[in-house]
Structure formats: structure tokens, C-alpha cells
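In keeping with the milestone schedule agreed at the kick-off meeting, the structural modelling team has produced records for the first pair of proteins. Each record is given below as a sequence line and a C-alpha cell line. The laboratory manager (R.T.) confirmed that both were archived under the project's standard naming scheme.
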Amino acid sequence: MLVLNDITIRMAGRFLIDRANVALPAGSKTGFIGNNGTGKSTFFRVITGDISSENGDVLISQKHELV
């Protein structure tokens, strides 16, 4: 399961993500759509730990190893 609680990302004084809450069950397939520059890639960078959010939590459970 992937859970994001109150994630906020600001760049250059502009909110890309403002208090987002998402819960995705393990094994689910989800797509994110939106215009250019709206924070889709930034959102995934928060999930992978490449960047930190201003506030909020990212919780990942039931990790599966690829063999």
C-alpha cells in the first residue's frame, strides 16, 4: 500500500501540490494526468524520495522484491 498524507510541494513560490492525500492499494495500477508543469513528475519524485515535501508523510508498506 502507498499512502500520502497532506503532501505539499512549492517551487518558485508556486504550489505544485497542496495538501494532497492519496491511498493506493498494493498491486493497483494508477495513472496521473494533467497539463505540463502541474507537478506529476514532482509527485513521483516525492514518492521515490528524490525530493522531500514541505510537509506531510509518504508511507510505503508491503514492499515486493523483484527477482
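The second protein of the pair:
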Amino acid sequence: MSDWYAMNVVLIQTTLTTLLLALSIQVPIRFGVFSFAGVGAFGIGGYTAAIAMVHLGWTTWPSVALGAVLAGVVVFALGLVVQRLTGLYMGMATIAFTLIVSVVAVNGGELTGGPGGLFGALGGVD
């Protein structure tokens, strides 16, 4: 591993993660769907992976896989509920979903770390 990469690994990982979050909004809008469900899925996947690492003692890759699967299941269920909505109604429903995820994360107490967040979930991507 080069010295440049070692010095900038956090910046690179943060940039790539933020790029994925931006794509979760950009791609549906390009197809004419006004949806912010990707932001809620991002939160569900992130918190699930962090909870699996901190509270269950899992390693990085199984935690990330669990977060991706749980986020996919929740968003699939959301899709079944909002599939007939269009335009601004779809946007309002998915923003409401994202706000519900945010409220659950902040009021999750010991499980989610509450308003302070969840610490100790730094896993290496080796």
C-alpha cells in the first residue's frame, strides 16, 4: 500500500460512500421517480452494520452483508406500499420514510447510541 493511499484512506472511503448516497438519489430522478428512499436505506444499512459490529461482535464483511440485506428487505416492503404513488406524493412518502428512520435512530437508546450516535464500529476493509 502506498504512503499516499495510507494517508488519505479515510478521505477516499468517505468520498466513495458519499458518491453512492448521491447516486441513490440521482438514478431514480433520472428515471422520473422522485424518491428519497435511498437515504433511509443508507441509514438502515449503516446502523445495522454498526450494531452488528458493536453489540454482536461481528467482523466487517458479515456486518455489511447483513446491513445490505436488511436495508434491501425494508426498501422492498416500502416499494410494495408506495408503488402506485407518483410525482410529489412519492417524494413525500419516501421523505416520510427517511424521517421515520431518522427518528428511530435518534430515539433508539442504547441500541443505536441515541443522539450521540454509535461509536466503536470501525472495521477495516482488508
